[in-house]
Amino acid sequence: TTNSILTSNNIVFKKDPSTKEEDSIATTTSSSSSSSNILHDDDRDVRIKNGSNRSSSSSKNASYYPYNMVWPLPQHASFGTMDTSICLDASSFAFVIDENGACCRTAEPMSQSCSDLYEAFDRYKLLIFDHTVPSSSSNDCLSYASIYVQHSNSKLDFDVDESYSLTIAASSSSSSTLSEHEKKKKGNIKISATTTYGAMRAIESLSQLIRFQYTTKTFMIQHVPWHIHDKPRFVHRELLIDSSRHFLPLSTIRSIITSLSYAKMNVLHWHLVDDTSFPYCSEVYPQFCNMGEYSSSQEYYTREDIVDIVAFARKHGVRVMPEIDIPGHTSSWCRAIPDICTASKSILSPAINATLTNQVVFNLLKELSNLFTDSFFHLGGDEVQTVLWDEDIETVKYMKLHNISSSKDIYLDFVRLAHDTILELGKIPVGWGEIWTNFGSTLNGGVVLQKWLIQQ
Amino acid sequence: TTNSILTSNNIVFKKDPSTKEEDSIATTTSSSSSSSNILHDDDRDVRIKNGSNRSSSSSKNASYYPYNMVWPLPQHASFGTMDTSICLDASSFAFVIDENGACCRTAEPMSQSCSDLYEAFDRYKLLIFDHTVPSSSSNDCLSYASIYVQHSNSKLDFDVDESYSLTIAASSSSSSTLSEHEKKKKGNIKISATTTYGAMRAIESLSQLIRFQYTTKTFMIQHVPWHIHDKPRFVHRELLIDSSRHFLPLSTIRSIITSLSYAKMNVLHWHLVDDTSFPYCSEVYPQFCNMGEYSSSQEYYTREDIVDIVAFARKHGVRVMPEIDIPGHTSSWCRAIPDICTASKSILSPAINATLTNQVVFNLLKELSNLFTDSFFHLGGDEVQTVLWDEDIETVKYMKLHNISSSKDIYLDFVRLAHDTILELGKIPVGWGEIWTNFGSTLNGGVVLQKWLIQQ
Hints:
The structure is a homodimer. By secondary structure, chain A is an alpha/beta fold. Chain A is 30% helix and 18% strand. Chain A folds into two domains: 54-230, 2-Layer Sandwich (Chitobiase, domain 2), CATH 3.30.379; 238-450, Alpha-Beta Barrel (TIM Barrel), CATH 3.20.20. Chain A has 14 helices and 18 strands. In chain A, a hairpin with a 2-residue loop joins strand 2 (38-42) and strand 3 (45-49). In chain A, helix 3 runs parallel beside helix 5 (196-209), helix 6 runs parallel beside helix 8 (303-315) and helix 10 (354-371) packs parallel to helix 13 (407-424). Chain A is elongated and about 85 Å long. The two termini of chain A are 23 Å apart. Chains A, B: It catalyses: Hydrolysis of terminal non-reducing N-acetyl-D-hexosamine residues in N-acetyl-beta-D-hexosaminides.
């Protein structure tokens, strides 16, 4: 077997500034040779060709406007002049599913993916129409956006299609044979996406184009017509949270997930436990729920909490990738089950009871794997101080008894145990770069690596 | 007429640490001579008599537990031992209005005050039951709290009664002639309040006593029976926000109001405009909506925004007291209507057009007075640099023409104009301490003063 190593084109790395997604901005070049307004950002080659607005400002930032109204920058975008605008009817505006595609309301029972999209409709209506307006102010404004979705049963995972197109046209561009009523009914905001999660990205982009105009008290989109074709440059766009070094309340995690969706980030990397604390109430090992807390307050996540967070994230188009960092960050495990650790209680060790140690690792990973539904499961593997085993009398005895010549082999055994468990559960193990620098191709196949050290 | 000056017993002052509400904590003394658990905080004399728990800890903070589970400290509280606890049924728990009092669901149409309370029920159920639990875990737990409210039509204003009592008894304390079913139906959480806003304070206290127990996955109240009788020590407990020196989005203001309700604070003092910006879209003077913003983004509050915030606050038992700081903090007015200011555009002046200047002050205050429904309207009056008038050629001419010997009289004229306007509208003018130190008893009657300077 060979190792699948996602390169910087496919994964956002921890702590490596050279691979930031914002690269696409840093390498932007511009040309004003054309009067059409086209943004084309592909293969790290950004070509901006803009017209009337460019000349109105010489500052670098202003030259991006109105491209930068949608953030991150779409792959392709074109737009009209500032004077051409449409308004939206705040009181009656609706997202309407195109009946030629998936997710019609009449299709019962509704799939989870479609249900997630309908919830997003409600969420975004509250986000977009964030001012109460007099009912008269948007009488003749557009009252719906049309959404075409191709597939109704997409699972949000590392391979989900997030591409979308968004077209916003002025009413006058409709066929002149239509009555005024028909023009409004036909609508002039069209979204098209392969999956419901792509449609959510489109709605996020749309929401960023809508501005409240205080003088007229209307919700406006300027620079129509807009034509946006977009897809993520990186399939994996994550933020890492660490609930061990400091406990994060559920409301904080939900708030972070909501923010991720605004930035079209798609992965919450949840570094759940570490040396500092083990804030998870395990079903198989309930003793963690008394011995793992960060402070004197009870600060834990239950199984139900995790299920809730994973569902909340999915509804926002965000995957949750758990991390259980084995074996280098496990001293909190020792408080609950001392026999699986060295005498110093600083790290897992097979010395006292190898069977028990392996069982605890296996059972915890299996239990968590059922709660975190994503295909990726991060197993850490960084910063392992093998000296902790070399200095532990029982571990040294164990190594002699089993003819283990180097404590680095203990390290490898734990990495393999963790990876094999996750592979056996049908998932993809993820690990920090040190497992590659230490063990290279001797690792199990199918491991995804993440760098956090710049020199690695 | 005489001036009503609220003393430190009745109002929370700005920037004066000696009058903080937390005084009641600083002066706390304790005695462990009794085995009953009674907290009695009245007239700055806090007597804590606690029993079994005290001996379990010698630290100062721990000695307050479990008194400090409710914060701010209730006026009177007694409680049982840690071992006596009840659990709540998360899946079916309801706040139930006692039919002997006001706010029954059958009483149609429901008053605003009762409707606010029902909304609070929904809000607090989400706050209290903040973990999903397996349905089996709270089968035999208490499923409702009974709420008796005396008056259905209370207006939230400076004189509203916020007192309440809260009793939480264990099921076993019910009459032994009741069946198990009846015991549960009778309930053992009772709230009694004069007004719906007092009932909200009771529910806030109740919510602070409920803790999630991770090992059993139940919502528990320990130390029953609880008997709490509480009322605010200060009728006016405010937080000042300043939306001029920095714009605050509506979502931020809502978040602040929610936080105030957790701390049983009851006034949001909204310092709306100042020299820096005038973020209000006036109906009478629409030019402010183009000339008053803080930054290049459109950052304003519309009339509808203010109505929404005032309603949101009222639903949380929080009054909104607006402040228009006249005449010392008005340079932002000059950008929109230059003729009402000195030539330096730094402060209001009657010199160019006294009628217009007076009209603008009067009309703006009248317009805002309709939106902010509270009886209190703050008119500032602090930090007036009379030298700005002495150095303004037109103002000096105006003073000579009208035989005004000192620019301090211009200051007084503006203060009187503002106060008279608010009094004429049937409201109570509030002002900063300088108007008292400068003008004392020559002020209009019925003015409420707030100190912000320690030496004043």
